[in-house]
């Protein structure tokens, strides 16, 4: 069997068995180098913490970005969307920071063994932003070599890149730091503004507030042009683009909208359906 055919078969197998503990991290035929399915860097796990195995389910599906909502409660960063769902055992450290540190150690400095690239950890602050960010900064400093770092005007890539979203009050303490291990999630209003990619490498916004199309029927030409212009403006500044509140129910509308996002160069596709987005992207990889 030709090598390319074997690799395609392994990719299909990996997608089918994603999440199975029995699937090895690398599979190879005798005499061949181990083949590892490529990470899906454009896949973003929205509300990742709501999955049965936060972080781990997304990693099993090879996602390149995960999102955790945090609340600062009595000096601790707890992970949940709403206050009534807070659990003292579900901390940012226990669900994300510590497991990522252990994984990177085990994989010799990488989140995905054999693949370069930085996993994005989007931290969405649900309480007052400045105080929550200061505690986040303190916790990130415990893993100095894990995170992409901005230091005195230069960005030093790491296995994990933390991007702070949510309450806008986090911006002020971040802007005055000469050394930080997190970056800022900008909005469309920030495009063309003073914040460079070294501060705001990501631009995120609500799809439904900027576009009327929901994947049904033809994408209006004016909206397609608008989308591509926004992505082009972000990319010209070295920034990545993401939209939330896109259709996420399985079906033709979702696939049509995802396809337009890919065609426009949008960098992260938002979903709660890990398997669905993984299958969609796998089918479109070269």
UniProtKB/TrEMBL annotation:
Keywords: Signal
A GO biological process held by the record: lipid metabolic process
InterPro entries the record matches: AIM6_PI-PLC-like_dom, HAT_RTT109-like, PLC-like_Pdiesterase_TIM-brl, TAT_signal
PROSITE patterns: TAT
Superkingdom of this protein's organism: Bacteria
GO molecular function, one term: phosphoric diester hydrolase activity
Segment forming the signal sequence: 1-30
Protein name: Altered inheritance of mitochondria protein 6
The organism of origin for this protein: Streptomyces cyaneogriseus subsp. noncyanogenus
């Amino acid at each position: 069997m030709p090598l390319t055919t074997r690799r395609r078969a392994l990719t299909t197998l990996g997608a089918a068995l994603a999440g199975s503990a029995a699937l090895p991290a690398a599979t190879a035929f005798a005499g061949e180098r181990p083949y590892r399915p490529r990470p899906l860097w454009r896949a973003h796990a929205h509300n990742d913490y709501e999955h049965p195995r936060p972080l781990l389910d997304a990693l099993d599906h090879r996602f390149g970005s995960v999102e955790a909502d945090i609340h600062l409660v009595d000096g601790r960063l707890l992970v949940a969307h709403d206050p009534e769902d807070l659990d003292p055992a579900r901390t940012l450290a226990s669900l994300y920071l510590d497991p990522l540190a252990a994984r990177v150690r085990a994989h010799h400095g990488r989140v995905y063994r054999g693949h370069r690239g930085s996993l994005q950890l989007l931290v969405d602050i649900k309480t007052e932003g400045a105080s929550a960010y200061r505690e986040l900064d303190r916790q990130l400093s415990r893993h100095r070599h894990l995170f992409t770092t901005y230091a005195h005007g230069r960005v030093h890539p790491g296995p994990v890149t933390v991007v702070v979203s949510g309450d806008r009050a986090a911006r002020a303490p971040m802007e005055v730091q000469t050394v930080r291990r997190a970056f800022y999630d900008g909005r469309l209003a920030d495009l063309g503004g003073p914040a460079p990619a070294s501060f705001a490498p990501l631009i995120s916004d609500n799809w439904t507030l900027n576009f009327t199309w929901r994947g049904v029927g033809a994408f209006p030409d004016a909206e397609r042009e608008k989308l591509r212009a926004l992505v082009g403006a972000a990319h010209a500044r070295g920034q990545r683009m993401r939209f939330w509140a896109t259709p996420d129910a399985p079906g033709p509308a979702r696939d049509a909208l995802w396809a337009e996002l890919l065609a426009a160069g949008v960098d992260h596709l938002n979903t709660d359906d890990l398997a669905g987005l993984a299958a969609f992207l796998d089918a479109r990889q070269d």
